[in-house]
Design brief:
Blueprint lengths: L2 H18 L2 H11 L4 E8 L25 H14 L2 E8 L13 H7 L4 E6 L9 H9 L2 E6 L7 H10 L4 E5 L4 E4 L10 H7 L7 E3 L2 E3 L3 H12 L11 E2 L6 H7 L16 E4 L14
Parallel strand pairs: 1-2, 2-3, 3-4, 4-5
Antiparallel strand pairs: 6-10, 7-8, 8-9
The structure holds iron/sulfur cluster (2 copies).
Length: 291
């Protein structure tokens, strides 16, 4: 039998087992005979605010109050995740701008200890890179933390940083190249959009997000409170829109849930995707909402 045929049979058997076996049994089998339970990626805010404030930011960061997230709370979240997922493919430290946090380095060692095999990445706009001292770069190296830069239209020598840091053994690369355009969320205030279509077209459904003991399929939903507060709006985030890590303990169950739309998807764009020229936010509602 050809190898490709064997792979096809294995895939079919896996699909069948995913549908018929209880989630707890799937988890048990994965831990016992497979590679353990796995989450593809997760990100978390280490700060909520940013020093750039781009219009259309999908974390609604220009509208967020200044807030440095507590390192202990983040570590607690990752301990909870570890009880469910043996491994996480990629862990993104984001914000806001992560380099604004005065104790950013304190998260690196515990995170690396909890998830020794994960690709851990700090995503930065690069503005504060030349303010970092030796301790910062040594810690990245020591705990094998990569640096990923979004290439904004700023006077920053991104290429130079990539070359310099790569030479001293820090994995450095672009998160997104030449960000001259931004995707506009075009949220529907009335929540009348087709959630299945919105989810189908969604780019962010794989950007899972953890905060305060809750795991979310994407980043816009858990950060919507910044938009709500700033403009006094009422985008509703219900109990079915997130997973309570104190209650749900099955990796297979969570991964199955993440393949389906959540109620909040009814607010998201189910039409054409719109791109806007990069600009600094004027904190206007039209940057995020379809008016
Ligand atoms: S740099 Fe990133 S986090 Fe900051 S406002 Fe721009 S898109 Fe948002
Ligand atoms: S709520 Fe749904 S459609 Fe909107 S960003 Fe999240 S996963 Fe995507």
């Amino acid at each position: 039998m050809k190898i490709s045929t064997i792979i096809k049979i294995i895939k079919k058997l896996k699909n069948i087992s995913d549908k018929v076996l209880p989630y707890s049994l799937q988890d048990y089998l994965k831990r016992k005979f497979g590679n353990g339970t796995y989450l593809s990626q997760v990100e978390f805010h280490i700060v909520d605010h940013c020093n750039l404030n781009c219009a259309y930011c999908d974390h609604f960061t220009p509208l967020a109050d200044k807030n440095f997230c507590k390192i202990d709370d983040i570590i607690e979240d990752f301990k909870k995740l570890k009880k469910i997922f043996d491994n996480i493919g990629k862990i993104y430290i984001v914000g806001g701008e992560p380099l604004l946090h005065p104790n950013l380095l304190d998260i690196l060692e515990p995170l690396r200890n909890i998830y020794p095999k994960s690709k851990i990445v700090i995503i930065t706009n690069g503005i504060l890179l030349d303010k970092q001292n030796e301790n910062f770069f040594n810690a990245l190296k020591k705990y094998n933390i990569a640096l990923s830069m979004t290439h904004y239209p700023l006077k920053i020598d991104y290429e130079g940083w990539i070359e310099k840091l790569s030479k001293i053994g820090i994995k450095t690369y672009y998160f997104s190249l030449n960000r001259n355009k931004m995707k506009k969320q075009n949220l529907d205030l009335n929540g009348k959009n087709d959630k299945k279509i919105a989810f189908q077209k969604c780019w962010e459904k794989k950007c899972h997000f953890v905060r305060d003991g809750k795991l979310y399929v994407c980043t816009p939903a858990p950060n919507i409170h910044f938009l709500n507060k700033y403009f006094n709006l009422d985008f509703k985030l219900g109990k079915n829109d997130y997973i309570d890590l104190n209650k749900v303990k099955s990796a297979s169950y969570i991964n199955a849930l993440f393949k389906k739309p959540i109620d909040f998807c009814r607010y998201c764009n189910d039409g054409e995707i719109e791109f806007k020229k990069y600009s600094i936010s004027k904190k206007e509602l039209s940057e995020w909402v379809k008016l």
